[in-house]
Amino acid sequence: MLQTSGSSQSTPLLQLKDVHMQFGRLAALSNIDLTVRKGEIYSIIGPNGAGKTVMMNCINGLYRPQQGDIYFKGSRINHLRPYHRANLGISRTFQKIELFGGMSVMDNIRLGRHIYLRSGVLSGSFFLGKAKREEIETRRIIEEEIIDLLEIQHIRDKTVGMLPYGEQKRVELGRALAMDPELLILDEPLAGLNLEEVEDMVRFIMDVNQEERWRVTCILVEHDMGVVMDISDRVYVMSFGRQITEGTPAEVQQDPEVIKAYLGEEDIYATRK
Question: pTM (2 decimals)?
Answer without folding.
Answer: 0.85
